[in-house]
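User: For documentation purposes, I need each entry recorded in a consistent format: the amino acid sequence on its own, followed directly by the corresponding structure tokens. There are two entries in this batch. Please keep commentary to a minimum and don't merge the entries.

Assistant: Recorded as requested. Entry 1:
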Amino acid sequence: MKIFEEIESEVQSYARSFPRVFNKAQGEYLYDLEGNQYLDFLAGAGTLNYGHNNPVLKKSLLDYIELDGITHGLDLHTKAKGEFLTTFNEKILKPRKMDYMVQFTGPTGANAVEAAMKLARTIKKRPNIINFTNGYHGVTLGALAATGNVHHRAAAGTPLTGISTLPYDGYLGDDIDTTSYLDKVLTDSSSGIDHPAAIIVETVQGEGGITAASICWLQNIQKVCRKHDLLLIIDDIQAGCGRTGSFFSFEKMGIEPDMITLSKSLSGYGLPFAVVLIKPEHDIWKPGEHNGTFRGNNLAFVTAKKTIDHYWSDDLFANEVRKKGEYIYNRIQKIITRYGEGNFSSRGRGMFQGLNCVDGNLANKITKLAFKKGLMIETSGADDHVIKFLCPLTISDQNLKNGIDILEDAIKTICIEKNIFDEEIDYFHEDYEVKS
């Protein structure tokens, strides 16, 4: 369609990587206008954890619309909101012994981050916030200041202030604990780091290259926060909602954040929805201090409630996600072994994993060829050098295998072209199975 070239802004990005016109989607499949089928390992950049047009969620949404349920209600009390809050409290928060207030922000994850940082500065009466190298928290100005990628930062058009960036886990090498450095600069009044209000951190850095922080490192971050009177903000926008194998990415780590940001797959259906979870003692907002016309998506309340009821009422779904995560990890390890440990390495946790190709050009060639073979998968990292696995958590075992088969076939083809390994050996015709 020429209309995209004629009047759509040059800011478009995913459309450049996947140049097709799509018109239908179901489960883990996308279809273009010509009827071509693609396995979706992109899943709305982690927004479609439960697949496209999930039939269970779709029915609840259609029923609600058919009954003329409220679509837009500002922050008014509605039946849909009340039912979501009740379900979220009873099936997510209470079983995990988590006590939080729920703030409905504007519909994007960036808005949730903006709200959390704004509240932290208000509480502590300090402007500075600590973030980490390769972090990504959004592209509105406040969130962008806490985002490391120069491509995004360069578009700000104004100085980005109020943030001090320190090294993430492993940034200076596996043998250096960067929390010791963090503690040192916060202890030293001459370090040049203004005493912050909070630390904001992703437990797994999505756009930053699927780098997963260790449990010990995260626990030490919390200790630093407590020692220096800082608030701890966990950005769980992409790593949360089951992606790492539990609803929150930090469960059973001994981590108790002061605030948690959630969005992406919170609605379950790809509908815009974002919240900040706030410890009750920190909920000092005055009415309307953080505002927005779309801070109450009632359609999202309906599908989010149904998502929790259907997938998070027990441990069955989480166990399935962990098993699939193990399968992805094992397949990645075999790819690394076959095509050279110097060329590839693995990173991530659960079903939030990546194949580090070291070279962004190599990763780009692999993902482009995979798309031609029927697999949508993107890259991440500072140089787009990490192939990012973001398939729906509900993907069938067979299609999980099929998708990785396609990726491995593309890797094999590209590696043959680069003469990375002996082209005589046929690695691709093994019978893989997802272990149940």
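Entry 2:
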Amino acid sequence: MHHLKSLLGTAALAAVLAAGTMAATTTVASADVACNSYGECWHTGQHYTTYPTGLGVQFYNDDWGVSHRTDTHYHWLADQKDDHGYYDHGTWHSFN
């Protein structure tokens, strides 16, 4: 009986350590929203710093995007597979 309790305790400890390791090494996918001054919005994985300054790109979290999806001021454009770029008047411009 003592051996079974010891084995169960060791198994429980191993499970907790494995779960902690997985949580520490898992990256969280970013789903931020970028919107330019024309109200064009798209999802982006990073806050790039190379947007043209005249575009006035602002970043919001995904919850903001969900709550503003139907606002008439914003126009939701297609998310790009490679989000290294920006929209300007409805046209996607990739960063070089």
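Summary note for entry 2:
The chain has a mean pLDDT of 80.
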